[in-house]
Amino acid sequence: MQIDTKEHYKYSWQVQKLLADFEVEDVWQFPVVLQEEHTVSFFQAQLFAAMEQLSQKGLAGWLFKLRFFLGNLFGWDKPTETAKNAMKKGSLRERYAQKNNLMESDLIPIGNAEFEPVYVLENESLAEISNETVHAGLHLSKVPLGDKYTIQMAVYVKPKGNFGKLYMALIKPFRLAIVYPAMMKMVGKHWTAFVKNG
Prior knowledge:
Elements: H1 14-18, E1 23-29, H2 40-54, H3 58-74, H4 92-99, E2 116-120, E3 124-130, E4 134-145, E5 148-159, H5 161-197
Antiparallel strand pairs: 1-5, 2-3, 3-4, 4-5
Helix pairs in contact: 2-5, 3-5
């Protein structure tokens, strides 16, 4: 479910200072219950697996496919000249590395996911995506839920120019009414099944 942005600021996360120049666009709480031993990294792996399923089915899946089609058509998602295994100039990975005096080899390797990892700590993680419309960060945090825990997701954005602002405004109704609710439902089912069978 979508929750108030203030919930994100009840806790002190590294992302808040790292992305002080970004806006918090959305904050959602996943319908999942974690035990003490479940780390953010553990949940994140299940999230990306569920997202892969989501992108292939239903109305949300159709919207993902439409977005990828338009991205290819208009060149919104064209790759940068920097190699995938190098630190991109202006990336959040570069920002995080500089802030913590890290080398590229100290960071989490980049895989094939749409979002590239910036950092994964015990109770929070950050991944980023950047294209011709927006630079965004996907932040996950493990927070108390009674005597157990749940996961909150905060989406940080920095639109690129006026077109980026227009693009974000145009997709907002679809994101809030279709994509995020479908994501919550899919992830909830995926997590419940994984914990039950795991």
